[in-house]
Write a structure and sequence with these properties.
It is built from ten helices and twelve strands. The two termini are 29 Å apart. The strands form five sheets. The protein has a four-stranded parallel β-sheet, sandwiched between helices. Strands 1-2 form a two-stranded parallel ribbon. β4 (96-102), α5 and β5 form a beta-alpha-beta unit. The chain is an alpha/beta fold. The protein is globular, with a radius of gyration of 20 Å. It has helices spanning 18-25, 39-49, 63-68, 70-91, 125-144, 166-178, 199-209, 228-238, 267-273, 281-301; strands at 8-11, 30-33, 53-56, 96-102, 148-153, 156-157, 185-187, 193-194, 197-198, 217-220, 226-227, 247-249. Bound molecules: ligand F7E. The site of ligand F7E has 23 residues, from α3 and α6.
Amino acid sequence: MERGYTVHGLVRGQNNPRLTNVERLCPGIEFVEGDLLDQSSLIAALETCQPTEVYNLGAISFVALSFKQASLTGEVTGLGVVRMLEAIRTVNADIRFYQASSSEMFGKVRETPQTEGTAFHPRSPYGVAKVYGHYITVNYRESYGMYACSGILFNHESERRGLEFVTRKITNSVAKIKLGLQKQLALGNLSARRDWGFAGDYVRAMHLMLQQDEPDDYVIATGETHSVEEFCELAFAHVGLDWRDHVVTDERFLRPAEVDLLIGDSTKARTKLGWTTTVSFPELVTRMVESDLAAHSAALRQGVAGG
Ligand code: F7E
């Protein structure tokens, strides 16, 4: 929107509760109905909006949930991609397409760091569905000459991250513990390592991918890896607390199969797109903790318990 685009957001379901959230965070987005499970609704949405670019960020994106709803994840996160590509082919094959692929496709990593050429070995129904989405995007580019790109994005975080994901779960709890609203934080695997970047930087990369002469696939990552434990250490230290006094482990948050270590090599994106990161890991943690502290402090002042 800052670049002068009219942005349409696809909304599924009836009276979708997330709509008010998005309207509050991003006023000015125009909404259009549609569902990745429903081919004709995607065609109708594209006919209504007549977009020049489509960013498919829609997915069941919580890895833990994908183990419990595996076939639905395949339908939405995997087959939803081919439905969108078919809708583009039907309405206007010149529409440029971005597919949100994921570092979860690397799973049990075959090499470190991971590049565009690293073989996939997904470890969850989510990762498997994303592999389908990646290859169908490549296939439509090669088969029909479509401008279709796959961005293999490593974890990207901000204060807008859902509370179910580990970074925001930690920063939200740190704020509540600091303010005396919570005592403990229960987590799963503390030794998992991720390449965590700032979501705003990653959205710039998505946009850049669609502005090139030729479509291509790119790894987007910071090139640093940190454990969940390190994230806790920094987040608690920021408010003067020791994470070891508050974090407990709970096997309910362990996954049937885990991705132990991710670290991306984004040399291609940095060279060809001129992409760079602007927020370091400590800055990201600080920014998220500060945002949750501000929200919970404001709620306390108004006499309302925060989420
Ligand atoms: O887990 C560990 C957990 O749920 C990160 C999605 O955006 O990024 C995200 O996937 C790590 C895992 O993200 C808890 O086991 C420990 O090793 O924040 P997460 P994710 O699974 O890496 C990729 C790139 C995507 O594409 C996905 O859509 O943290 N962990 N204890 C925990 N994770 C959670 N959620 N909760 C815990 O209590």
